[in-house]
């Protein structure tokens, strides 16, 4: 489940492999752009923006992709077997003389003018891993709707860009609030600490694909403890020992995990119909 730190690392690996190199292969396997051919042009840079990825190509064009739940980009050396999935899941191939980036299961893939990038990322809030990071503005946006549940507010990329379902659950735990507590009910100072923690977590994890959040709570580091609640349904909370609970949401197959002993606030409403 890609989040902002995963997209950041993916973009930087693609940038290291392809930036400044002439494209010898450009293949988009989506009907709208299947005939596009940018071979012979230089790939200028690959930039992450929240959970979006922008690959800018000579001539004022940008390949925009979003990984959502299942997408990925993999970089391969010449002769290396492409092992990111079956061939029918490949949506894009960007190749140069000494490296090839292959995009698998990309639900969003489009070619647009670089000058028009704002049409796809201009709505985003401050990027947790970007040069425009503004914690005060992120807090302002997060708290703009006091009645909104915390989990929804954290996932809204218009508030702060880069948080996905894993960080939503972990940040709510660290704030000692359930994902359904209205933002306006958070104690004074908690929104500021929450935003600072989000920034610290993504910064700490952006250089690796194996995510770790346990150290954010000041606990003694243990190799067997990666996250506090996410994916730990029924297991004992590291703080209080209560079994971690989970709830399937009705939006985009998301699941919320929380500790009923440590996190204060309302629980989920009626279970969504299937």
UniProtKB/TrEMBL annotation:
Under InterPro entries, the record lists:
DNA_glyclase_Znf_dom_DNA_BS, FPG_cat, FPG_N, H2TH_FPG, Nei2_N, Ribosomal_uS13-like_H2TH, Znf_DNA_glyclase/AP_lyase
What is catalysed by this protein? 2'-deoxyribonucleotide-(2'-deoxyribose 5'-phosphate)-2'-deoxyribonucleotide-DNA = a 3'-end 2'-deoxyribonucleotide-(2,3-dehydro-2,3-deoxyribose 5'-phosphate)-DNA + a 5'-end 5'-phospho-2'-deoxyribonucleoside-DNA + H(+)
Q: Where is the Formamidopyrimidine-DNA glycosylase catalytic domain?
A: 2-103
The residues covered by the FPG-type domain are: 228-264
Please give the superkingdom of this protein's source: Bacteria
> So what EC number does this one have?
4.2.99.18
Q: What SMART domains would the database entry show?
A: Fapy_DNA_glyco (SM00898), H2TH (SM01232)
- Spell out the PROSITE patterns in the cross-references: FPG_CAT (PS51068), ZF_FPG_1 (PS01242), ZF_FPG_2 (PS51066)
Q: Which UniProt keywords apply?
A: DNA damage, DNA repair, DNA-binding, Glycosidase, Hydrolase, Lyase, Metal-binding, Multifunctional enzyme, Zinc, Zinc-finger
**Gene3D superfamilies, per database record:** 1.10.8.50, MutM-like, N-terminal (3.20.190.10)
Q: What family is it from?
A: Belongs to the FPG family.
Task: Report what the protein is called.
Answer: DNA-(apurinic or apyrimidinic site) lyase
């Amino acid at each position: 489940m890609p989040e902002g730190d995963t997209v950041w690392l993916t973009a930087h690996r693609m940038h290291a492999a392809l930036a400044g190199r002439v494209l010898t292969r450009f293949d988009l396997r989506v009907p709208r752009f299947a005939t596009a051919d940018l071979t012979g042009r230089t790939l200028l840079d690959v930039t992450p923006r929240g959970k979006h990825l922008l690959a800018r190509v000579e001539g004022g064009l940008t390949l925009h992709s979003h990984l959502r739940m299942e997408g990925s980009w993999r970089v391969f050396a010449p002769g290396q077997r492409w092992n990111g999935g079956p061939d029918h899941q490949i949506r894009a191939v960007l190749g140069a003389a000494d490296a090839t980036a292959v995009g698998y299961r990309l639900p969003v893939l489009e070619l647009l003018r670089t000058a028009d990038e704002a049409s796809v990322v201009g709505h985003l809030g401050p990027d947790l891993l970007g040069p425009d990071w503004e914690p005060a503005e992120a807090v302002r946006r997060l708290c703009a709707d006091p009645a909104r549940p915390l989990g929804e507010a954290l996932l809204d990329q218009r508030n702060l860009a880069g948080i996905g379902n894993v960080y939503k659950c972990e940040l709510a735990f660290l704030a000692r609030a359930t994902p359904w507590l209205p933002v306006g009910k958070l104690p004074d100072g908690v929104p500021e600490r929450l935003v600072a923690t989000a920034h610290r977590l993504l910064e700490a994890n952006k250089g690796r694909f194996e995510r770790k959040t346990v150290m954010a709570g000041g606990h003694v580091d243990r190799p067997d403890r990666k996250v506090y609640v996410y994916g730990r349904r029924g297991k004992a909370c590291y703080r209080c020992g209560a079994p971690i609970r989970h709830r399937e949401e009705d939006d985009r197959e998301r699941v919320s995990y929380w500790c009923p002993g440590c996190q204060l606030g309302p629980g989920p409403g009626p279970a969504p119909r299937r």
